[in-house]
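Pipeline run #58 for the internal structure catalog. This entry was flagged by the ingest filter as a single-chain record with no existing model, so it goes straight to prediction. Upstream metadata was stripped on purpose; only the residue string is passed forward. Reviewer on rotation: M.T. Logging verbosity set to normal.
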Amino acid sequence: MTTSNDLPTDANSQHHVIADTVGDRLDRMLATALPDHSRTRIKGLIENGQLTSAGRTITDPSYRVKSGEEFTLNIPAAEPAIPQPEAIDLEVVHEDADLIVIDKPAGLVVHPAPGNIGGTLVNALLAHCGESLSGIGGVKRPGIVHRLDKETSGLIVVAKNDRTHIDLSEQFAARTIDRAYQALVWGIPRPLTGNIEGNIGRNRHNRKKMAIVPSGGKHAKTGYKVVKRFGDFATLVECRLATGRTHQIRVHMAHIGHPVIGDTTYGGGISGARRAALNEETLIFIKKLQGQALHAFELGFRHPGSTESVKFLSQLPIEMSKLIALLESL
């Protein structure tokens, strides 16, 4: 089958598809031709009258196509969702007129996105801060100047006015923000202290993952040091970011052969060798981990209001502390 897209993706887009099969369901054929859109999404568009063929509108997703038949599917531009306040408990480490520092639990998404329209940190902040936060730094991500992955816990700072948002954003861009993480990783990194460098970009085989790429991507540098060893099979490491790329620590540690425990996206699951080194209790605990054992424990910056240097610290979450105790007992 052949396809074409006449309009930019940030506007209504029209996709022209010519069927090369006979008897296939219309929604299935279109989902195959347009892999960036789910079959459920395409089915809904057909039922809503967004598909035409030879001047007529087709609203039956089960319509059986004929070879050479031409279809035009109109996909409306996505409308930005305006986050709504939600009463979600937050652990506030610090708050003043300019900013708020939150200790984010694993499992909490930072800002709304497809698949996570509600229940995010932004929804919680809108309820906590009221109308004062609305619109700071944009409607969809009010106050957000950096982020943590959904399953990464720890410290995150949010701006409460435009002046603070601009100032903090400039500090992040200038790489003057101190950010340190603690992670439990498989194996023992060698040397025990070092730097990992490598441009990070989208994985060419899986666009949902990041990877060290041979060309393109963005420069990324992570400093690490071993804090504690658990035999030869696991280590507590401290990582400091010189840059802030998507999944940076997870990608860099996996790149040197020491993925974060629990990070199945980048090889941190339980392999045969790892399974053999652990007892049943530890195996069960790791399997039940909510994501990767990675925690943002230190955050330092120049306060935009007072201009003084401030630093905030966070203890390891209970899950990581329990895992450390289990590893120590082996």
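catalog note: The longest helix spans residues 162-173.
catalog note: Confidence is low (pLDDT under 50) at residues 6-10.
status: ready for reviewer M.T.
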